[in-house]
Specification:
By secondary structure, this protein is mostly helical. It has one domain. The protein is built from eleven helices and no strands. Helix 2 runs antiparallel to helix 3 and helix 6 packs parallel to helix 9. The protein is globular, with a radius of gyration of 23 Å. The relative contact order is 0.08. This is SFRICE_011663.
Length: 329
Amino acid sequence: EGCGWGAAAARDQALLAQLAGPPALLHQPSRLPALPTDNRDLNVIVNYEPPQFQDDNLKARTFDQEVSYLRLKDALVSAIALCIELADSRPVEDKKGHYEQLNTCVEAFSTAMEKCRQLYAEKERISISAPFPSRIIAFVNSPVPYRELYATMLRLVGELAINRTTAAHDACDAVARLLPKAQLQLQDEIAVKGDPVWSMRDRLESLSNYLEFIGIITFLLGVCNELFSPASAKKSKKKTNHSPDEIKTSELLNKLNNTVQTSIAFLENILDEWPKYEVNIEEILAKLSLDDKYQSPVENKLKTGRDDMLNDVRNILKRKSKYLKSLLQ
């Protein structure tokens, strides 16, 4: 059992590897063990809390939260892998099995998101003697409607794959309408409240959840593009006539593409306005030193780490935007 849950991580890695577009179909994953084992070594954390703040259920509770988060992500990655399988060149009739699996997977993800929102509605108290709160808390309690965004986008791929044009149009339009609202909700979520350094972790976590969504929707738009305009058709020099439904599909996908690019520009503006550290850690540490001759090797890691992180994210967003522009028809 202890090894079984560890094997799930390998399965996630295997599924993620399929995002490059596997030529072969994914195999049916093995069942996860009913009772995963907590292998976290929390004994290294020294507890300084007074008796009134001692939490005997902390370890079990945080473990349940982490397992729930992994299962949510497992369902999401499995759904993405099914979208890739639906993007191949098989006849529509042969895809219906995977289409049903995708709908089941999306429904399970949506139900689990709602259940987790009820279970983990209360924020954990941040303490030096406890692990950081699980990412599931910020994910399921975010004002950004991630459940609707992910579920609708995944269903869009499924509807395109089996040529359910009206349903695909509705899903595409729904995501395009949700995104501008999501931007406003994210902006409110990451607004500085109180001390900017103390609230930095929560703000970074909220930002990372949205960045992850932008990465996934960009990838799924690429899958939609492959379903609607296969690479083999693009290479053909012969001009083809498109039906009114195909023209509308192209217009809606382009509209959604432009909306995602607007979201990327919105994120770039957030990064440009991200608060800067005004405190020099080296100077503070130098004042605390009892030995004037001691040369502290500590560098201003917070500032340099922040700058490196922001630059990396900017570069990723630029690549996403460039890829989206290449999909426009």
